[in-house]
Amino acid sequence: MISVGIVGITGFTGLELIKILLSHTNVSIDYIASRSETGKKISDVYPEFVDVFEKEIEAIDIDKISQLDVVFLALPHTVSLNVAKQLKGNVRVIDLSADFRLKDISVYEKWYKVKHEAEELLESAVYGLPELNYEKVKTAKIVANPGCYATSVILGVAPVAEYAISVIADAKSGVSGAGRGLKEGLQFCEVNENFKAYSIEGHRHIPEMEQELSRFNENIRVMFIPHLLPIQRGILSTIYIDVKKEMDFKALYKDFYKDAPFVRVVDKPPTLNSVKGTNFCDIYVRFDERVKKLVVISVIDNLIKGASGQAVQNMNIMFNLNQKEGLILKPYYP
């Protein structure tokens, strides 16, 4: 059995990790920790775990973490890197923050407005998008789990990136994408029956998108505008791409993802209900002859393929397991 720990257990991603890993046949959840709620059982924080999973939440203990096979760090940025840089031994890290996603430290410091305190670990970190970095993830000591918006957009653009002249991504997310913390703009009366764009000046997931897509096209730039939907979960990205030439784009996408078990190239525009509660990314492709633009619709569950499910997918790859292990999840519908 793989000995697993989760640090940052009380947020939405920690919750989803428990739900997924409890049905995983190859792991044992041996350690859960938080910066708050220590001494309580996880069922005290999330009553749905009563009589299901009653483990006690511990304080963050570097020595205990270092004895595990793998730890999921579901912590805010800067907190994650400060834990990771103290770890010893052979424990492998899957980090759900942004701390190891960007290879250029100056880009991280520009977008996150903080100094990176673990530059020595960046070289060994692998960006954990399995559809693009499968071989590197297999041997990684640190996997940087991608951002949710970045996952949706990169998967939507990657097959055609080398032919792209311009990329405009218009994405909508449910409220859970902002985390579990109390924020005025996420109160019920602010969100319910409302719809808004935000981070117009530039969202932090943009450099991830451009970093990963630049392997196909070094000149690629992404104009990205996120929006907040009055729903709990899910991301739908509608992406408009000017391309250098016309081709059978659907066949191109199907071939690109032929070995990707969690990407489905579909025949009709997908909805959030198509993927909610699963680790799938559904992608629809259509070339608009009238305006000569490629339209791509990409949908994911932001908490699963956009976070915890993808993290478990990365763990499966790291430990030579089937990517699907523990991730054959049924959609939440209705």
Give an overview of the whole structure.
This protein is an alpha/beta fold and 334 residues long. The protein folds into two domains: 122 residues, NAD(P)-binding Rossmann-like Domain (Rossmann fold), CATH 3.40.50.720; 154 residues, Dihydrodipicolinate Reductase, domain 2. Helices cover 27% and strands 22% of the residues. The protein has twelve helices and 13 strands. The strands form two sheets. Strands 8-9-7-10-13-12-11 form a seven-stranded mixed sheet. Strands 2-1-3-4-6-5 form a six-stranded parallel sheet. Strand 5, helix 7 and strand 6 form a beta-alpha-beta unit. The model has no long low-confidence stretch (mean pLDDT 95).
Please report the distance between the alpha carbons of the first and last residues. 35 Å
- DSSP strand content: 15-25%
Q: Could you say how many structural domains there are in total?
A: 2
> Rg, please?
19 Å
Helix content: 25-40%
Q: Spans of 5+ residues with little confidence (pLDDT < 50)?
A: none
Name of the CATH first level of the largest domain:
Alpha Beta
Task: State the main characteristics.
334 residues; alpha/beta; Rossmann fold; Dihydrodipicolinate Reductase, domain 2; 2 domains; 7-stranded mixed sheet; 6-stranded parallel sheet; 12 helices; 13 strands; 22% strand
